[in-house]
Amino acid sequence: MTSRYIEPTGADAVFNGVVGFLTRSGIPLAGSRVLAVRGRSSGQWRTTPVNPLRVTGQRYLVAPRGQTQWVRNLRAAGTGELRKGRRAETFTATEVPDAEKPPILRAYLKAWAWEVGRFFDGVDAASPDERLLEIAPGFPVFRIAA
Questions:
Q1: Are 14 and 22 spatial neighbours (Cβ–Cβ below 8 Å)?
Q2: Strands (DSSP E) along 1-135, which ranges?
Q3: What is the pLDDT of residues 60-108, one digit of tens each?
Q4: Across the strands, what pairs with 95?
Q5: Domain hosting residue 52, numbered range
Q6: What is the predicted pLDDT for the residue at 97?
Q7: Which of 48, 49, 57, 121 is the most buried (most CB within 10 A)?
């Protein structure tokens, strides 16, 4: 595991605020959801917008900024909720080993590069598996199931 973390900018905070507001209002942007996870220290619900991804019938959450607070909280809790409007779906999460990440990261970049591509330092959906495997430790991925 790497300690890679990209701090959100002011523009990121504004964008996430808008996406979160729309998703909480029941109008998700391109399939976004609000992730709710209990804080590992406080036990309070913490929320952030995320981009769930489906690959070969499985669902995933990818952390494009690395070791974020939501990643640390989800590791500790092992469960959370995906919210859209008034609906909340409870799930359990299992972290994906680095060796399994390349096809997930490729699919994530195909779906969401317009929003998160800048966090991948020149790696894109067309990058070879070897390059995706090389960066995999910096991008936590969770398989989620209801």
A1: no
A2: 33-38, 45-50, 53-55, 58-62, 79-84, 87-95
A3: 999 999 999 999 999 999 999 999 999 999 999 999 999 999 999 999 9
A4: 142
A5: 10-145
A6: 98
A7: 49
Please choose, from the candidates 8, 1, 2, 28, the residue with its C-alpha nearest in 3D space to the C-alpha of residue 119: 8
Predicted TM-score (pTM) above 0.85: yes
| CATH number for 23 | 2.30.110.10
C-alpha to C-alpha distance for 74 and 77, rounded to whole angstroms: 5
3-class secondary structure for 51-64? CCEEECCEEEEECC
Look-up: residue for tokens 């398989």? 143
What's the rounded mean pLDDT across residues 26-37? 83
What CA–CA distances, in Å, run from 79 to 40, 49, 135, 142?
A: 12, 16, 26, 11
Residue type, 28: P
Alpha-carbon distance 144 to 146, whole Å? 7
Total domains, the chain:
1
Is 4 contained in some domain?
Answer: no
Tracing tokens 């900024």 back to the chain, one arrives at 65
